[in-house]
Design goal:
With about 140 residues, the chain is mainly alpha-helical. The chain has 5 helices and 2 strands; from the N terminus they run βαβαααα.
Length: about 140
């Protein structure tokens, strides 16, 4: 997994061993559209390192999460440290405001993130990363 989702012991999908057919949204965006070495079933975890919703867990109250050990993912403040109960309430409060940030941070995912994830899981024949980028530039709606 990337630094964005390396989270041994954290809540959410990254808490368990990564399946052979899994990739993070960032890794999926960096993969060629069709990669035979990535066996089915293919799974992509789309999550931002700074997204409090994917990292929230009742365990935060009394256990240091993996995402606060070692290198921080993009957008996770190096000054954030785990304290019993305090970190739990900080992350809980952050969830209320996690959608009022630019795409690519907290709980706001960019169109490219979603397009890359889908193109990695089920790429149409002849699909390229350039076509994924072009798709991501299309207006939403």
């Amino acid at each position: 997994m990337t630094g964005e989702t390396a989270a041994a012991g954290a809540a959410g999908p990254a808490e368990t061993e990564e399946p052979a057919g899994a990739a993070t949204g960032t890794e999926a965006a960096q993969r060629p559209a069709a990669r035979p070495a990535w066996p089915p079933p293919r799974v992509v975890y789309l999550q931002n390192a700074s997204d409090p919703i994917v990292w929230w867990s009742p365990r935060l109250a009394f256990h240091t999460p993996g995402w606060l050990r070692g290198p921080r993912g993009p957008g996770v403040s190096p000054s954030l440290h785990w304290y019993p109960l305090v970190t739990f309430w900080q992350v809980t409060a952050d969830m209320a405001d996690s959608a009022s940030v630019p795409p690519g941070a907290c709980h706001v995912y960019s169109t490219l993130d979603g397009a890359s994830a889908w193109a990695s899981i089920i790429p149409p024949p002849g699909w390229t990363s350039e076509r994924t980028a072009a798709l991501a530039r299309q207006p939403a709606g």
